[in-house]
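Appendix B, record 7
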Amino acid sequence: MGKLSYGYKKLTNKDQDKPTCAACDITHGGLSLDETSQWKTAKAELVESGAVRQVKQFHRDELDSETKAFIQSRGLQFPTVLAQSEGSGFRCVMSSNELAAFKGNPQTFMQSIRQKLEESKGTS
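Structure tokens (predicted):
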């Protein structure tokens, strides 16, 4: 039922600046049930570059209690991008508003993620 509800919201949403789910637009190109080849390539390139060990995606109903608690304690809205480092826990890398700005483009999203991760290395 969740996918049907999402599809209806996606089809009836008229506000391009506030997509139904900016993360879904990036990973699945909107209404597809499969990840786009562009997203798969972008994920693989991010891991291969050494910027991250892995990229995980979760729907809000798939989150573990630790991740949910972090999101709630920070007042974050879905979708959001989190990074988790060994020993230092979670941090918010990108907000839902920032995700919407990519308008579904996985390449520009990943470029921004790389930049944010590099910047955070300099401040750690």
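Remarks on this record: Helices lie at 2-12, 22-28, 37-48, 65-74, 96-100, 106-123. The radius of gyration is 15 Å.
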